[in-house]
Design brief:
Strand order of the largest sheet: 1-2-4-5-6-7-8-9
Largest sheet: 8 strands, mixed, barrel
Number of strands: 9
Protein name: Diguanylate cyclase/phosphodiesterase
Radius of gyration: 19 Å
Helix content: 40-55%
Low-confidence stretches: 1-16
Number of helices: 13
Bound molecules: ligand C2E, magnesium ion
Structural class: alpha/beta
Organism: Paractinoplanes rishiriensis
Oligomer: single chain
Domain EAL: 24-277
Distance between the termini: 49 Å
Shape: globular
Mean pLDDT: 90
């Protein structure tokens, strides 16, 4: 695993390992406990159709219910976890929670596709597709009910290896989304060669789209690119009704953001769904 990681950026990896503080090592140790004790929880943020407002899925976002420090956000521990082998069991734990939740919702009559974020370290692992397949089987969930969100950065660090892994995931029937699209360096060639289903436009182009002609131009270009490559598009970070209206007018099919809903605990998401349908 370490060898694979260092192939994607030996200098960066070594520097981070060497400078790792005892505080960070303590955090990794605590994370092992957190996974074992079930302290990781998922909140869910709806993906909605811009025209009808219909919810078409929910993105799982991890939080750590820490016994002393309260609810920790991914930014407090995912960056450190990504540089450590713990990202593998952490990814498995999140997948398990999300598929278990999907299954529980389905059993209650709510069919809601789920999306899970996958860190680069979780992706550069040839056993990953097998573990995804096993998790789908374990929860009896159809593969097309699961979207994996990956970032451009994880694709470009070793495109050949990632492509092979993505092809195996796609062969399972899992949907593959590029998260924070527009902020990395993925070339058109990579995009065309990867078996993707969705682009998620980074929120920096979305937040002020109703005020900034430059943002609108970039989103327009991404929409055209997505059409050419036959990919669906989600705009993330919609904070205002004005932004949503512009996206709908431009033909951006799906959106996510605080304007519609913040990420919510599962029960609150169900309540929100009932409130918006009514
Ligand atoms: P992301 O996948 O791009 O998720 C979107 C982030 O933006 C979430 O932050 C979400 O709460 C926030 N957000 C949603 N709508 C809005 C909005 O309208 N305005 C603004 N300003 N923010 C909005 P969160 O939950 O703190 O997650 C941050 C990042 O952590 C995620 O970015 C994702 O890269 C990573 N992450 C979250 N959960 C997991 C996980 O289970 N595994 C891994 N590997 N990474 C995760
Ligand atoms: Mg995401
Ligand atoms: Mg994103
Ligand atoms: Mg983002």
């Amino acid at each position: 695993y370490t060898a694979k990681r260092s192939r994607c950026g030996a200098a960066l990896y070594d520097a981070r390992t060497d400078s790792r503080s005892s505080e960070q090592l303590g955090l990794i140790g605590e994370l092992h406990r957190a996974i074992a004790e079930g302290e990781l929880v998922l909140h869910y943020q709806p993906k909605v159709a811009t025209d009808s407002g219909r919810t078409v899925g929910a993105e799982a976002l991890v939080r750590w219910q820490h016994p002393e420090r309260g609810l920790l956000m991914p930014g407090d521990f995912i960056p450190q976890a990504e540089d450590d082998e713990i990202i593998v069991p952490l990814t498995d734990a999140v997948l398990d929670l999300a598929l278990g939740q999907h299954r529980a919702w389905r059993d209650g009559g709510l069919l809601l596709p789920v999306a899970v974020n996958i860190a680069a370290g979780g992706l550069y692992d040839t056993a990953f597709p097998d573990r995804v397949a096993a998790a789908l089987t374990r929860h009896d969930v159809a593969a097309d009910m699961l979207t994996l969100e990956i970032t451009e950065t994880s694709i470009i660090s070793d495109p050949n290896e990632v492509q092979a892994i993505l092809v195996r995931l796609r062969d399972l029937g899992v949907r593959l989304s590029i998260d924070d699209f527009g902020t990395g360096y993925s070339s058109m060639a990579y995009l065309q060669s990867m078996p993707l289903t969705e682009l998620k436009i980074d929120r920096r182009f979305v937040r002020a789209i109703h005020e900034q002609a430059g943002d609108e131009a970039i989103v327009q270009a991404i929409l055209e690119l997505a059409r050419a490559l036959d990919l669906t598009v989600v705009a993330e970070g919609v904070e205002q009704a004005e932004a949503l209206a512009v996206l709908e007018a431009m033909g951006c099919p799906y959106a996510q953001g605080y304007h519609m809903s913040r990420p919510l605990p599962p029960a609150d998401l169900v309540a929100w769904l009932h409130a918006t349908v009514a």
